Amino acid sequence: MNQKTLWDSIEETQTIFREKEVFTIEYIPEVVDYRKNQIDKILYNLKDNLDQHKRPYHMILNGSYGTGKTLTINYIFSQVEKRYHHVKTVHVNCKNYKSQYQIYLKIYEKLFNKKRRVDGLSTFTILNNIIKEIVRRNIILLVALDDINSAKSDRDLNNVLYNLLRASESDKNAKITVFSVTNDEVVLFLDRNVQTVFNGINVNFPNYNYNEIYNILSERCHIGLYEGAVSEKTLSDLARYTYDLGDLRKGFDEIYKAGLNAEEEGSHKILKSHFS
């Protein structure tokens, strides 16, 4: 008879989560609720252009934190790559990739589908290799610069945008579309040279109302937690708290941490005391 390992014991004592991933920012649901207008506007720009192998217009997705911008662009990118073999998408979180060099490196790694040694290569060389690869493979590159205002400096931000937007001038087959994802008016940070080429289509993401927040949290709990793990009252209080903050991601974080606290106590139910 095999002796149980530590990991077996942990799995047996878990009582709350069915699927933890649904409470993370990486999770992409089959349907993105309450963002149909925004999705339709983005797809209207993409479909006809991508069908004709043309570069879509640049876009600016703005709204407060936790309003579904990142979820929406990741959902659309996942659908685009399933439909179009000649399109590559790259999502860059500028909170993690702040400098011009780091942003290009992230694009480089996704484009070549693996981490490659670039020791000693200059920022310009990496950018040039990206452009050459796009042209060689005859593909269209869609780049989402998420939390773009978190770039290391205004200079880095302007240089990244200017070089990506101007790529087609060095080669007409270098087709790159930039999605600027921001909680602010990004144009305030752009110099005149960038503003002349970054005339993006604006897509606004309003805050979710209370009912929308409640329904989204309820659906995530239905998928991610075992039945009965959270009461309607607890869920309603969490929705109200999340609505007052205006950030849906905070609601996901709170229910996830509360679930961990409940599991640590061996509880089958998330209680008010489990929230920090």
Write a structural description.
This protein is of the alpha/beta class. The chain is built from 11 helices and 5 strands; from the N terminus they run H-H-E-H-E-H-H-E-H-H-E-H-E-H-H-H. The chain has a 5-stranded parallel sheet with strand order 2-3-4-1-5, sandwiched between helices. The longest helix has 18 residues, at 248-265. The mean pLDDT is 88.
Q: Helix- and strand-based class?
A: alpha/beta
List how many beta strands DSSP finds: 5
Strand order of the largest sheet: 2-3-4-1-5
Order of helices and strands: HHEHEHHEHHEHEHHH
Please bin the fraction of helical residues.
40-55%
Q: What's the number of helices?
A: 11
Distance separating the two termini = 42 Å
Write down the Rg.
Answer: 22 Å
Mean pLDDT: 88
Shape summary: elongated
Strand count, sense and barrel status of the largest sheet are:
5 strands, parallel
Low-confidence parts, pLDDT < 50 over ≥5 residues? none
Report strand %: 5-15%
Q: What keyword list fits this structure?
A:
single chain; 276 residues; alpha/beta; five-stranded parallel beta sheet; 11 helices
Secondary structure layout:
Blueprint: H1 6-13, H2 36-51, E1 59-63, H3 69-83, E2 87-93, H4 100-111, H5 123-137, E3 140-146, H6 154-165, H7 167-170, E4 175-182, H8 192-195, E5 201-205, H9 210-224, H10 232-245, H11 248-265
Parallel strand pairs: 1-4, 1-5, 2-3, 3-4
Helix pairs in contact: 4-5, 9-10, 9-11, 10-11
